[in-house]
Amino acid sequence: MPTYEYQVVPSPRKGKSVRKIKGVEAKFANTISVLMNEMAADGWEYQRAETLPCEERQGLTGKTIKYHTLLVFRREIASEDGVHETVTTPVVAAPVVPAPSAERPVADSRPEPVFTRTDGPASEGFMGDDSASDETAGDTPKSGDVAAQ
């Protein structure tokens, strides 16, 4: 069975101006014809035209869906000996790691993290009693407050 590769190109949106060709339809048809002949010269066979949606940005946060017309070409992939081959992509498997057994426990080589209390503005309430934070959170006025005098 033959194997093909495909190439998709955007369809021209308007016809190019060429001498002796009058009319919008004739210019557009000539542009399509030139494109198809260029692709055929490189061995590409025209298959079909597709109109597909594409989500595009509009402004900073907006999105809109626009439809694009694409031309699909294909060509047969020939093998070196003339016989058709299928192209296979090699599959790379992940290495098999044996599961830890109950007989041999796996030792963790990472040391256990140690959390200690340090002096500083962020250390209040960190791994400490909640009673210390309850004393400061009360509505009792401090000695430097104006309302206490």
How would you sum up this structure in a few lines?
This protein is of the alpha+beta class. Helices cover 17% and strands 26% of the residues.
Explain what you see:
With 149 residues, the chain is α+β, with helices and mostly antiparallel strands. It has a three-stranded antiparallel beta sheet with strand order 1-3-2, with helices on one face. The termini are far apart. It is elongated.
Secondary structure: elements and pairs:
Layout: E1 3-10, H1 24-41, E2 45-58, E3 62-77, H2 130-137
Antiparallel strand pairs: 1-3, 2-3
Question: Helical content, roughly?
Answer: 10-25%
User: Number of helical segments?
Assistant: 2
Report the sheet with the most strands, covering strand number, pairing sense and barrel closure.
Answer: 3 strands, antiparallel
| Element pattern in H and E | EHEEH
Question: What structural category characterises the helix and strand content?
Answer: alpha+beta
Mean pLDDT: 75
